[in-house]
Amino acid sequence: LAQHLEAQLVSLIALVDHVAGIVDQAEVLRIKAVQHPQAEEAEEIITLADYFGIGVCWDIGHANTTGCDPYTAITALGSRLQQVHVHDNCATLDSHGIPFTGEVDWQRVMAGLAAVDFRGAFDLEVKPDKKPAPVRMAYGRLAVEAAEHLLTMMK
Asked: For residue range 60-105, what is the model confidence (pLDDT) as tens digits?
């Protein structure tokens, strides 16, 4: 863990130096070149966020493909969590589907967000793919309705 963390810190220092004050969030699961078991990963993300004084973006769909428990991960991140990318998938393919159309445990996700009193950016990140325009509009409306329902689950 320490060796991987040190390599990540060196890489991030170079990145932060390169982009000066532009970087203020690091997206979970894309911050590392090497994947680790989930328990180590959460600890590393927290350490990196604290070290650099940055917030964390938790990508719900990406996390679902790792098999981690969303409630545990979100509550471990706590107040560091400033943004979530919201999409669903079947846990084996990152399809960026509308919430409730895949296998994400939305009860656990929203309970975690409520537990940390999440007030950050809630970014709906779904793909309309190559649907015809009228279908894309309906798909978009459904995506918004699903996101609105998710937000009611935090209350």
From this structure: 998 899 888 999 989 999 999 999 999 999 998 889 999 999 999 9
Report residue 87 as tokens: 């999409």
- Write the Ramachandran bin of 141: left for phi over 0, alpha for psi from -120 to 50, otherwise beta: alpha
The answer to whether residues 118 and 81 touch, using CB atoms and an 8 Å cutoff, is yes
Pick the more confident residue, 112 or 129. 112
- Would you say 94 and 102 are in contact if contact means Cβ atoms under 8 Å apart? no
How confident is the model over 45-55, as pLDDT tens digits? 788 888 888 88
Please check whether residue 9 is in contact with residue 44, taking contact to mean a CB–CB distance below 8 angstroms.
no
- For residue 44, what pLDDT is reported? 76
**Euclidean distance between CA atoms 40 and 29, whole angstroms:** 12
CB 68 within 8 A of CB 38: yes
CA 71/CA 154 separation, integer angstroms = 13
